[in-house]
Design brief:
There is one protein chain. The protein is α/β, with parallel strands linked by helices. 41% of the residues lie in helices and 20% in strands. The strands form four sheets. It has an eight-stranded parallel sheet. A hairpin with a 2-residue loop joins β1 and β2. α7 runs parallel beside α8, α10 packs antiparallel against α15 and α11 packs antiparallel against α14. The longest helix is centred in the C-terminal third of the chain and has 27 residues. The chain is globular, with a radius of gyration of 21 Å.
């Protein structure tokens, strides 16, 4: 168990991070950013182009989401850094009073690979919007993110799919190390914005160690684990996560990029991760699916046509207080209202799950929390082997 007696506290001009409690590797912490307090573990809703799809910023405020995401690549295209500068940053542009984290644009090297050309200078993208070209260099990524005014900015990294192995993974890892120095040099607002580095190295533990060691030398305010959630096996996934949390500084936030399935999140909290993001809760909502303690509820199914209960009888969100499963079943067939209402519920669900996990760590009841969560998800106790192996590595045995 990590000691928390004064060792797990870090301050920089725009960030304060304090670990308040630890159980096993799981941590409950306090992260203070320029736009307010973030209690971790935390799930961060994704607002790629300046909006979390289907939700207003007022609704996100009602849910009490303390931090959301934006994407440098997309915002760099539309509305562009000049509009951001004129408006005074993304907070004012989208009327959001909470914190913002911006992805550097590196992930688009995977998601838009057919439109991208990667060199040492940077990545040349062809816009999916109008066909125009954008050269995204570490310097350009910092320029855009400085204009956006994000509380946390991600360094531009060379991202490859986790399904790829061999020399390309090593090339990308070393390039990511070279690019972090260019990002640090180009960062113009270090007293107002935090630059996080992204650990790369694919599924090769030796490459991960090299990247971890090099990034720790840079003494950044926080670190992310990148290059996962791309289709690799869950056994490979959890082992790399655990390796990274073992080696990352105990007094700085740890962010696992692109993970949003509740089971995955709970396992990774147990492995020592503090921050998560994913489009999953809002994307699956648009397909008529709600997140519930027992897993997922597909409201398109006819069995809900005459079900007049709320989605989750123990949830007090706007959706569950005002609408029935039957109503959402009808609206799930092409009505955007269903996606909006389920997005509200799904994000509420994940934020509540984070609060429950956090409180259980503070109360030193995290093991019991994990056991009960998994039992509800898998009432037949048919737990996936990767879940039992990952939790077993931190001495959590399921019921």
């Amino acid at each position: 168990m990590e000691s928390i007696q004064g060792l797990n506290h870090f301050e920089s001009p725009a960030l304060q991070f304090t670990v308040l409690a630890v159980q096993g590797k799981a941590r409950a912490s306090k992260l203070i950013l320029p736009h307010g307090l973030v209690e971790t573990p935390i799930f961060m809703p994704v607002g790629t182009q300046g909006t979390v799809k289907g939700l207003t910023c007022e609704q996100l405020g009602n849910i009490k989401a303390p931090i959301i995401l934006g994407n440098t690549y997309h915002l760099g295209h539309r509305p562009g850094p000049e509009v951001m500068k004129t408006m005074g940053g993304l907070h004012k542009f989208m009327n959001w009073k909470g914190n913002i984290l911006t992805d550097s644009g590196g992930f688009q090297m995977v998601s838009l690979l057919k439109l991208a050309e990667i060199t040492e200078e940077g990545v040349t993208f062809e816009s999916p919007h109008d066909g125009s070209k954008l050269l995204l260099t570490p310097e350009k990524s910092m320029e855009i993110q400085n204009a956006i005014g994000a509380d946390i900015m991600m360094a531009l990294d060379d991202v490859v799919s986790s399904k790829i192995s061999g020399p390309r993974v090593e090339e990308a890892m070393y390039r990511t190390i070279r690019w972090i120095d260019r990002c640090i040099k180009a960062h113009q607002r270090p007293n107002e914005q935090n630059l996080f580095g992204i650990i790369q190295g694919g599924l090769d533990p030796a490459l991960r160690v090299i990247c971890l060691d090099e990034f720790k030398k840079r003494n950044l305010p926080g670190y992310a684990i990148g290059g996962l959630s791309g289709g690799e096996s869950k056994d490979e996934f959890w082992k790399i996560v655990s390796q990274c949390t073992d080696h990352l500084p105990a007094n700085k936030p740890r962010y696992l990029m692109g993970v949003g399935f509740p089971v995955d999140i709970v396992v990774c909290i147990a492995l020592g991760v503090d921050m998560f993001d994913c489009v999953y809760p809002t994307r699956t909502a648009r397909f008529g699916t709600a997140l519930v303690p027992t897993g997922v509820m597909n409201l398109k199914l006819t069995l809900y046509a005459n079900d007049f209960r709320p989605v989750d009888e123990d949830c007090d969100c706007l959706t569950c207080k005002n609408y029935t499963r039957a109503f959402l079943h009808v609206k799930s067939r092409g009505d955007t209202l269903c996606g909006m209402l389920l997005s509200y519920h799904n994000i509420t669900y994940l934020l509540r799950l984070m609060k429950q996990a956090r409180q259980s760590i503070i109360d030193q009841k995290f093991v019991e929390f994990v056991q009960q969560f998994m039992l509800k998800q898998f009432p037949k106790k048919d737990y996936p082997s990767w879940v039992t192996d990952a939790l077993g590595s931190v001495h959590i045995t399921l019921l």
